[in-house]
């Protein structure tokens, strides 16, 4: 039911929109001077310690609100980076600059997901605010939505025309009432220079101190007015390439000479053994997984501990921890499945690429025509292609899950004799498959085509000036993922199971496989791989995924003053939007599973040994088919009401907004905002507060996930029940509902501290009905506990027809609290008889709580604040100190985040530990250090048009902290730590 406030706002919006639709159009002028942040010191072209005067008639539009009005100060905290800030960072991709902001936590880039084959987000540069995830951060270009680069709907910042960006606004508060779905954590808005005139270019190159990750960037933009400046054209083109950091292969060897990698994992004892007062968990270095070796290891039975080397020669494996194999699969003095030290040559963790090879190409144009002095129509087109490739791991480790028959002709005679002497027919075997000629390599390519036509301007209505902007957008993103040098599980298993036929020739044991091209593969030791065998188990076509995603938008917005009140003008912004999102994805037949009749041809021939219906045949990268679409209709109204203007009490205003939205899938939902600011009579002191209801609608992936069907088992009413596990989307999902509250204090350039500004903002965010995925057993347990919605997704009492539908549900919740601090100070140094100007700026975020409640039976809410294995450390800081004059500028930057823990649910103890539990495990040491990174850069103006610059990131070459996992794979956390190392860059900027 709508509140009276909501009904009033809607009525105002409808009445105003109807009146404005019949009015003449005119253009809204861009403000001549835009404040860079809520707390920024005076701009470079102003006298230090003063604020540039803004004529009363001028208006300023800031991304935290749709309102643009005289004297309006928005209540929602917004931090901005100017083009000068972005240039000083000297990164080849603006994404990397923004991801360093303290409020941006959990963003994805080219150093994240490099250990993943099937996540779909590899190479995706997407921003996340507050650690709430990229799907809860709305990223805009000139206030407009951009087609997603992934089925989750998130955008790829790498596809934006970055050279023309003149400002980036980061709204660190809920903004759904103003901008719509997904703005739960906030909004990141890239503002381009729409009337750029002249020519500018940027050329940059760099590399790390390890002589890898070499990069090159070339950007150019041109703009010019024609026909008395009524026609304006802008064109830009960008190319950048970062070569990445290749895998060093197997063993505990860091890439490119890096020495910090040390196979760190969690060693975990069984719960039943924790009655002895010792902890369950311990983080260990130099972990050796004793279930396989580099070229093969017998892992069970009387021959356990026999490894194989060059030419298949057997030898006794060197277990760490002075371990001795027991013949049962276990090793004494080791905790399953790890020993410490010993032969680490087969470990695979260091073989993950630290950074992807990454290439971006962007072409952008904007054409505008001034209908008159106040109105324009325009057209923009953007073409962008982002390519990346990387290796998630070397080889393809098989962890004691292979069975080798003793009559396998590739076995040395001594092993065959030992089999006979011990009366065994087979043994368990594990190998890192280091004999493979190539590592798995993944190649995602995202291509965007986006077109916008629009109009903006100003007009007069009832004696008041109003502005409008309207646009229609069509965008497409195609994502092609190709995986090379990866094996088919069934073919691999058939190829390694070899026998001799009647003629003595070595062939595959499985007659059906042999008849369909099976070539025997020798995995007993280090032997050259037969190219024919490699071609059989790793066919050249490999897994593929082809995704087409489209977005269509029609939007109109109006902004103006309704009447002059006692304390200032009552201002309003209102508008409506229609949007359609659509996707279609196809995988290869070996991964997706199709009818046998549709398989054929050289790339994917029919093979009866493969599961042609279900798919899932690849070692990884089993992409499936899916499709779906939805549309959205919404309208909003936002009001600014000045309520106080007094020499005694200061100035205050209320900011109110309401948005009504109808999704074709999720139904109707409302979002609203109530905010206020008070400019006190105390010099420079201002208070702000805002409360909002924000929403995130289920995305295409959650609604229409590609279906996957496999067989599985669950525990139900004390019995093991065989079921068909059907993984699908859930079209009955509801929108996530968030409540954002914030309160802030701002001190902006008081007379007693000219050039100084600071702000402190407290935030409290609650998100309910969070969309999350459960395991098949968790769903069954929730049904037994009485959740009827989940019970409808399964049948468990019909033998032969039992199934459980695994899908997303609105079960979880999030609760986040913290505060942001931002300060800036700028002064001329001539008062100290020194040349130049000095600027210091600092931004910090303190996360007090980040509580996640999964809604799963038998679990408790978990605290994520200060967990450095995740994205939200307790403290995160970015500070810069700059000195500049007319020719030279030098900048020092510090990036810091605080020490943390592996998990807040662990109980740290060394002796006399309580019995460990699933909810509160015990751990020997629960500390994970933070990090400090220092960057240094500068630029020199050779002339008015030419600038040279340099930048050194991670000046001290600070190593990342180990991030132990349950397995020795990629034991670092690139979401927080710099995994690349010291990086040098230099370049030229030309502006004419």
TrEMBL record:
InterPro entries: Beta-barrel_TonB, Beta-barrel_TonB_sf, Plug_dom, Plug_dom_sf, TonB-dep_rcpt-like. Residues 29-53 have a biased composition (Low complexity). Its main location: membrane. Residues 29-57 are annotated as: Disordered. It comes from the Bacteria. GO terms for cellular component: cell outer membrane. Belongs to the TonB-dependent receptor family. This is TonB-dependent receptor plug domain-containing protein.
